[in-house]
Write a structure and sequence with these properties.
There is one protein chain. This protein is of the alpha/beta class. The model has no long low-confidence stretch (mean pLDDT 97).
């Protein structure tokens, strides 16, 4: 299995528009962060988790020729705003399967009504296959069992995903002990860590490290990173030896 980190930035990305913060002016490519997403590949299958506003750019950068489906963690714009850019895949492949909670599909129906309408639909609009998922049931894609893991983003339920020995969790602030048990034993964990200071709906560095200590993965990569975290090169020196800051374009073989 290969995991490609498509984006590692917070909802505004880095650099932030109009910001003169030193990290936003950094020339280190690891400090340039598109909105969060990952691509997971195995046995000829390609799945993407989340399709935010940078989806098109990420697909072009990685030269992705086809996708077998998209898993959505939740409905926020930085995780779903790129839904229209599935059109090239739709035109070549037909309907693209989306896996999401029913609540997420309801939100998408409101925001992207032209995609989901059944009356006088514009012929250039894509069509997606809606597959509802929940934290209560595993599901199968590409011959693998996917384990949904619920976390709370403030009060909003968000789904992370465990695929074999890889787990992806984003927009976490809290997680129940029951859901932590689903993650234990994973070898590679990708999880959000926004900054050093506390935040009302995201883990900060100390909270993320405490959760990593509880889960005990072999290797951890932090994502959903704010420019307020600091420079990539400097922050990495402050982390435990098995914990790293992810960066856009990073490839992890599992």
């Amino acid at each position: 299995m290969r995991v490609t980190i498509l984006g590692t930035g917070t909802s505004q990305g880095i650099p932030v528009i109009g910001s003169n913060h030193p990290v936003c002016k950094s020339t280190d490519p690891r400090d340039k962060r598109l909105r969060v997403s990952v691509m997971v590949e195995w046995d000829g299958y390609t799945y993407v988790i989340d399709c935010g506003p940078d989806f098109r750019q990420q697909m072009l950068r990685e030269d992705v020729q086809r996708i077998d489906g998209i898993l959505l963690t939740h409905e926020h714009s930085d995780h779903t705003a790129g839904i229209d850019d599935i059109r090239p895949f739709y035109f070549r492949q037909g309907n693209v399967p989306f896996y999401a909670h029913n609540r997420v599909f309801k939100a998408l129906h409101e925001r992207f009504a032209y995609i989901f309408t059944t009356e006088n639909k514009y012929p250039g609009a894509p069509t997606i296959e809606e597959i509802e998922i929940s934290k209560h049931h595993t599901f199968a894609i590409g011959g693998k069992e996917i384990v949904p893991v619920e976390v709370l983003h403030a009060e909003l339920s968000v789904l992370g995903f465990r695929i074999d020995e890889f787990t992806y969790l984003t927009d976490v602030k809290t997680i129940s002990e029951e859901e932590v048990e689903k993650v234990k034993g994973t070898k590679v964990l990708v999880i959000n860590a926004l900054r050093f200071e506390e935040h009302q709906s995201h883990l900060n560095i100390s909270e993320a490290l405490a959760l990593v200590d509880k889960i005990q993965p072999e290797t951890t990569y932090f994502t959903h990173i704010s420019h307020l975290m600091g420079f990539h090169a400097e922050v990495e020196t402050k982390l435990p030896e098995n914990v790293f800051l992810a960066y856009d374009g990073l490839k992890i073989n599992i």
